[in-house]
């Protein structure tokens, strides 16, 4: 029985085996069926599955690696690559846009919502000089099937009273606030941390795993609006700052 691969037939219009393998693997990665870290079948396994040559499989895997979807490890095989996100340090960005820029489906899940009288720690985080009511939120942002960022947020209800009636089930607090409260000033603090039990459980990482933390406070006309802490698995996120020389 002879083996004919459309990769080797000039002028053939049907999809080639190389393109079919490429498309099948890409679809499994982008759909989340194969999450980051998942081992791709070995070359000889794909050769048997698609009844093609080793060269055709290698060509498809090489193209996937070049596109940044998989990483090839000598002697270990090929694995779905951890998404690398880049976020500008000085921007208030929507995590949905950040995830979709990676070619992955976005999903948001609210974990906790508590309306309370602000305690001393809340007032310190928000920079409040007087007691007041606050809204506490914990949320998860997903890229595919994997947790992408763990969000913990305080909202000053004196500055945004309408937030007290919003459940934040269908929409995350970040884009909701940006659409309703004009911010005049923002502060970012960036640091590294080892995942504690709560963070590790939320992000599905091991306790003690390295994480990147971005803390932000925003003001509107000198009134504190929100304090938020985003925690990312360290290997999946990059912060970028672009600037020009100061003018004398």
Summarize the structure.
The protein is 25% helix and 33% strand.
Give a structural overview:
With 248 residues, the chain is an alpha+beta fold. It folds into two domains: 6-80, Orthogonal Bundle (Arc Repressor Mutant, subunit A), CATH 1.10.10.10; 85-240, Chorismate lyase-like (Chorismate lyase), CATH 3.40.1410. Helix content is 25%, strand content 33%. The chain has helices at 17-30, 43-50, 54-66, 95-100, 120-126, 173-178, 197-203; strands spanning 70-73, 77-80, 85-88, 106-117, 133-143, 146-156, 185-194, 210-220, 223-233, 237-240. A hairpin with a 2-residue loop joins strand 5 and strand 6 (146-156).
Question: Keywords, please?
Answer:
6-stranded antiparallel sheet; 10 strands; single chain; 33% strand; two-stranded antiparallel ribbon; 2 domains; alpha+beta; disordered N terminus; Arc Repressor Mutant, subunit A; 248 residues; Chorismate lyase
Pattern of helices and strands = HHHEEEHEHEEHEHEEE
Portion in helices: 10-25%
Biggest sheet details: 6 strands, antiparallel
Low-confidence stretches: 1-13
What structural class do the secondary elements suggest?
alpha+beta
Question: So how many helices?
Answer: 7
N-C termini distance: 78 Å
Quick check: average pLDDT? 84
Number of strands: 10
Topology:
Blueprint: H1 17-30, H2 43-50, H3 54-66, E1 70-73, E2 77-80, E3 85-88, H4 95-100, E4 106-117, H5 120-126, E5 133-143, E6 146-156, H6 173-178, E7 185-194, H7 197-203, E8 210-220, E9 223-233, E10 237-240
Parallel strand pairs: 3-10
Antiparallel strand pairs: 1-2, 4-5, 5-6, 6-9, 7-8, 8-9
Helix pairs in contact: 1-3, 2-3
């Amino acid at each position: 029985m002879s083996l004919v691969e459309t990769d080797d037939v000039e002028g053939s219009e049907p999809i080639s085996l190389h393109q079919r393998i490429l498309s099948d693997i890409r679809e499994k990665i982008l759909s989340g069926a194969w999450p980051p870290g998942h081992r791709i079948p070995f070359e000889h396994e794909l050769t048997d599955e698609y009844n093609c040559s080793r060269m055709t499989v290698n060509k498809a895997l090489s193209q996937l690696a070049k596109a940044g979807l998989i990483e090839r490890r000598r002697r270990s095989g090929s694995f779905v690559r951890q998404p690398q996100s880049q976020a500008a340090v000085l921007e208030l960005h929507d995590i949905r846009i950040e995830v979709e820029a990676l070619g992955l489906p976005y999903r948001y899940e609210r974990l906790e919502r508590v309306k309370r009288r602000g305690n001393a720690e809340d007032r310190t985080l928000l920079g409040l000089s007087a007691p007041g009511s606050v809204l506490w939120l914990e949320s998860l942002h997903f890229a595919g099937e994997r947790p992408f960022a763990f969000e913990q947020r305080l909202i000053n209800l004196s500055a945004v009273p309408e937030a007290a009636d919003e459940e934040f089930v269908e929409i995350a607090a970040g884009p909701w606030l940006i659409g309703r409260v004009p911010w005049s000033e923002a502060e970012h603090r960036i640091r590294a941390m080892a995942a504690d039990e709560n963070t590790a459980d939320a992000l599905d990482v091991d306790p003690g795993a390295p994480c990147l933390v971005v803390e932000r406070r925003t003001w509107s006309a000198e009134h504190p609006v929100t304090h938020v802490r985003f925690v990312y698995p360290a290997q999946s996120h990059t912060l970028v700052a672009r600037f020009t020389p100061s003018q004398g």
